[in-house]
Write a structure and sequence with these properties.
It is built from 13 helices and 18 strands. With about 475 residues, it is an alpha/beta fold. The chain has two domains: about 260 residues, 3-Layer(bba) Sandwich (FAD/NAD(P)-binding domain), CATH 3.50.50.60; about 160 residues, Succinate dehydrogenase/fumarate reductase flavoprotein, catalytic domain (Flavocytochrome C3, Chain A, domain 1). The strands form four sheets. Strands 1, 2, 5, 6, 7, 8, 17 and 18 form an eight-stranded mixed sheet that branches. Strands 9, 11, 12, 13, 14 and 15 form a six-stranded mixed sheet that branches. β6 and β7 form a beta hairpin.
Length: about 475
């Protein structure tokens, strides 16, 4: 089979690429490895898009200027980011919603009491599944051919140019190709290889749960890196990794398995000891570091412990916690050493300094003389009943990927391909070297999906550009 533009992948970035190329008049074929009912990859589990804006706009309150967005990203990545590509993503996030609406995406009104995300993030009406469905409907109207259950195992590349893709026994040629097939988070063997064995003789990756799709096996990513020598970016152990309920399913648990009360209490490991500052920063900026922190603990397990004062202050998870009327009873119920647990809680309680508790700001409730400290929202655990949630690492997507530039081209030996492009999780490591802040994955996928789609259409002989579309009057 032959087409103008071949898009490999079926999530947000792939769909943005396919729609952009089709708008330019290109014939587009999209290959999704999942069956139709599970289409959309991790994008089906998303909720929002982080957006720069200089004044209040439709579903965004106040302002979130470029420099603040950049500083937020710089902080969570610890400087492990390409500033040029990061700022490209940031600027694109300010103008993409008009285009998204034209393709059927709807946004909901600003959320109240949502820890600042009403200022920074635009939420999809119906969540990521509704966004994915809207894009597929628009793709159908534009004539994009979609094949489900069509995983691609390998590519033919000559002198840095895409020639063909193999989906099973079928060879598909195209004038240009966009790779948007996700990371390798569902490939247990690759995770084991990346994380290795720790000093306790454990294989941490064996305890990881996958928050999203089971179909992100990293087959094409590894093929590009090992068989074709594509330039790589990122650390294979770095990922969007969240502390989720230990009872979550192996795949597709999504948002409802996240535990969001960490900043309202303390977190202890199997040794009944704290190991990190639970109140370091606002939860949307820090929630995605906790999976990695738990992965470094014995048994890759921990417990988030709160008292009655935290009730109603966080999004409740799908499973109830372990509840006890006393701290000793809670320790016994969790199987933790009672004396050590009580010592940990007593030391924490004694270190809490008085202040005005306010979970919507970086308040002055902190610990003193305690290691690790709790910088904000530190209140004694002294009001029964007490609740604990068991935590395990939940991997959303991995950051090892293909190096690219502002054209979204895949690079070989220092040279960008003129007809092979990459978007989404397969290149997110260019912007996210580590850490995460809520909604930025969708910002990256949307920006680079559209850039890759435009580049592929141009390479196929259909000139196009990614237009800025003001939201000022939307």
């Amino acid at each position: 089979m032959h087409t103008d533009v071949l898009v490999i992948g079926g999530g947000n970035a792939a769909l943005c690429a396919a729609l952009t190329a089709a708008e330019a008049g290109a014939r587009v074929l999209l290959l999704e490895s999942a069956p139709r009912a599970l289409r959309g990859g991790n994008s089906a589990h998303t909720r929002n898009l982080r957006c720069m804006h200089d004044a209040p706009q439709d579903v965004l309150v106040e302002a979130y200027p470029e420099e603040e967005f950049w500083q937020d990203l710089l902080k969570v990545t610890g400087g492990r980011t390409n500033e040029h590509l990061a700022r490209l993503t940031i600027r694109a996030s300010s103008t993409c919603r008009g285009w998204m609406r034209r393709h059927g995406v709807r946004f909901q009104p600003p959320l109240s009491g949502a820890l600042h995300v009403a200022r920074t993030n635009a939420f999809f009406m119906g969540g990521g599944k509704a966004l994915v469905n809207a894009y597929y409907r628009s793709a159908e109207r534009l004539g994009v051919q979609v094949r489900y259950e069509a995983p691609v195992q390998r590519l033919e590349i000559e002198n840095g140019r895409f020639v063909a893709a193999w989906a099973g026994e079928e060879r598909i040629t195209a004038r240009a190709c966009v790779l948007a097939a996700g990371g390798f988070e569902s490939n247990r063997e690759w995770l084991r290889e990346a994380w290795g064995q720790n000093a306790r003789g454990e294989w941490p990756a064996d305890q990881f749960l996958i928050r999203g799709t089971r179909f992100n096996q990293g087959v094409l990513l590894r093929h590009l890196l090992e068989s074709h020598g594509a330039e790589r970016i990122g650390d294979p152990t770095q990922a969007h990794m969240v502390a989720i309920d230990a009872r979550a399913p192996l795949y597709d648990g999504g948002i409802c398995t996240r535990i969001d009360c960490v900043s309202l209490g303390i977190v202890v490991n199997r040794e009944a000891k704290r190991f990190y500052d639970e109140g370091e920063d606002f939860w949307p900026k820090r929630y995605a570091i906790w999976g990695r922190l738990v992965a470094q603990q014995p048994g890759q397990t921990a417990w988030s412990v709160i008292d009655a004062k935290a009730a109603g202050r966080f999004m409740p998870p799908v499973f109830p916690g372990v509840v006890a009327d006393s701290l000793p009873a809670l320790a016994r119920a969790l199987g933790l050493d009672e004396a050590t647990f009580l010592q940990t809680v007593n030391d924490y309680n004694a270190a809490c300094q008085g202040g005005r508790f306010d979970h919507t700001v970086l308040d002055d409730c902190h610990t003193q003389g305690l290691q690790p400290p709790k910088t904000h929202w530190a209140r004694p655990l002294d009001t029964p009943p007490y609740t604990a949630y068991a935590l395990r690492p939940g991997v959303t997507f991995t950051y090892l990927g293909l190096k690219t530039d502002d054209t979204a081209a895949v690079r070989f030996a220092g040279q960008p391909s003129d007809n092979l492009f990459v978007a989404g999780e397969m290149m997110a490591g260019n912007v996210l070297g580590q850490g995460y802040t809520a909604g930025v994955g969708m910002s990256i996928g949307t920006a680079f999906g559209r850039i890759a789609g435009a580049g592929a259409a141009t390479a196929a002989g259909h000139a196009t550009t990614v237009r800025d579309e003001s939201e000022a009057t939307a």
